[in-house]
Amino acid sequence: MALVVDALQATVGASEPWPDDVLLYQQYKVEQITLPDCAQCLAVEAFLRMCGLRFNVKCKTNAEEMSPSGKVPFIQAGQYLVSEFDPVVFFVGTKGFSLSRQMSDSERSEMRAYMSMLENILGNAELYMAWLNPEIANEVTKPRYGCSYPWPLNWLLAWRKQRAVKARLTANDWASKSVEEVSEEVHTCCLALSEKLDKKKYFFGDNPTELDALVYGHLYTLLTTKLPGGPFTSVIREFHNLGDFCKRVDSAYFSD
Amino acid sequence: MQTNQPCKTGLDFLFCIEIQQFIITKLLSDQAVAAPPSGIINDSQPTGIKTTSTPSAKKDDNVVKLDIDKLPVRVQRIVVDGLTRTKDDIVIKEIKPLLNAKTFDELVHLSYNAKVKMERLGLFKNVVIAIDVSKDNKEYGYEVLFEVQEFRRVDGGIHTSISNNDGSLDFQLKMPNILGRGERFSLDYTVGTKRTHGYSAYFKKPLNNNPDIFLGSTAYQFHGEYPWSGYKQTDRGVAFDLTFPTILGSHNIQWEGVWRDLRALARDTSFSVREQAGHSLKSSLKHTFTIDTRDDPILPTVGVLWRTSQEYAGLGGNVEFAKQDGMFQWNTSLPLDAIFQMSLAGGLMRTLDPNTSVSISDRFFLGGPLTLRGFNLKGCGPHSYDNALGGESYWLAAAHLYSPLPFRPGKGRFGELFKTHLFLNAGNLGNLDFNNLSTSFQDFAASLRWSFGCGVVLCMGRIARLELNYVVPMRVQKGDKANPGLQFGIGIQFL
Questions:
Q1: What is the ipTM of this complex?
Q2: Which family does this protein fall into (chain B) (predicted)?
């Protein structure tokens, strides 16, 4: 039902041009946001920047609760609220902006496959590391998640969130994995991406696509976040072309 | 004195006086017996105070006349029969004054007072008193037997309750006198018509053996939806309160700690409401003062209600405000069974944290079929895309003239539950700017709303009020949701 409403809203909104006052809502980057959320926010931001669209980032401590889907980030365009990466891509597409318009159908489905692999492996690995690794969860993720609330809400909400993440990862069999197994998964994913990227500027040639935005969001977050242990950083650093890719996107779109 | 002893032996029930019987016989004896010097009892007839036989004394002119009121007594034994979980000390405390009774009349009064108090304390469902002469034939020696019936350990019930334009079904499990000193514990589950539901546990303990002074504590979870403002909220909280009477009125002091999770109700909820979504923790201290001299809470004919409350939020938590609210209602009976009612209410709040404004769940709202008639429920004041945003101050005034139904159908019976009324309502809701009070007061006066109308009021068993009115809104401000014409309302709170 929600999907139908989303689609309908986006279609209705399509007749209007891209408004001037688009806001991207997310949590505070320095003090509050957790690693998986940060990756999602950065991916959406990178996508909007690659499309060359006007928008401003607005940080709110309650961005997660404000979001219609309960997840960050979300954009407010006029009276429309669109949350998460795929719906935002779809919504922006209805306004006539797309990064994958020039691609052939087979390329587009290949891109979709990579994106879904990325979400499945890196998305779950980030959740696993942030919330299930006891050291990182207790020292970094939980204090950050609860930082804007008074005692005892700060630990209560963080505990509740941890329980929800645990339930989600138990359902898709990630919770039972060991750190080594998760690192292995991340390695496989990065290997696939590295081979696809090869020596190209972007994954599908000289122009960025949705996949580039998503890869940048996840890898940049994983590479730059300092966490105790930080097991995945070393795994990703093995692939030099991916690191260079992140630097390239950063200087091309985030240089301001 | 003995308690907790199931002892019926030695008491001659022939001569026992049950309290109800006693009152009747006392009346009879007052008529039949003159007032000779008290205490004339023939020793040869130790059972001479056969009060139950007083009517027969009418026939016999030679009977010993005695004034039962001033009959000297010396209470020798008090037996309380039927105690299981009620603690001895609380019962002893209540019945000890009986030992000091000097006259029979005093003894009866003290016994009756003890019965009423123990029942009000919630110790017993029923208390029957029997007074008898002492079996060891001491002069003026008496024994008192309290036959008490305790409550069942666990009791339950299902009932419906009504809040403003919302009905709910309540399931209750209660444990009266749970610890043996009048404590009461109850568990409630409530489910309402507007997808509201909640659980609560409540514990109440009378202090100092006084049923009017008590400590209460509650823990609850409640989910409510507020469609007029486009949000839903889950409250989880604990509260402790102390209630005590004074010569002026009743006071209640409460501390409440509540975690509130506010979410937008739908996709089309206004962004001004959505912005306030999230978790908040309110820790507040509230004092409520009530004087209620009315004869009925729903359709009073005479009396005054005065209720004021002060709330301070900010003892920990992230909600900081000070709030003052009050209402006054005055009723007077007029000729021809008419009643005039005048009500005033007002409230003011102020955030104590300059960086935030008061949350929508703490604000005042105005309008509805039982308050500012002629407007939709919470339909007055600032709105954003159909969602009421509430205000930080309000006032409301109402005048009613009630009269019985025309031609008085069902007079003395169901017809007394109905009244017709003419009314006039006025009020306003808004935000006062404390830096520029005179201008904001002028704005407040200029943007007044008022309406008048007439209708029928139905009193539903002293718990709720049902109104069907024809209303004419006379002044409506931009953004208000007026509801001219017929309007139906049901609820407990009204003005």
A1: 0.86
A2: Belongs to the SAM50/omp85 family.
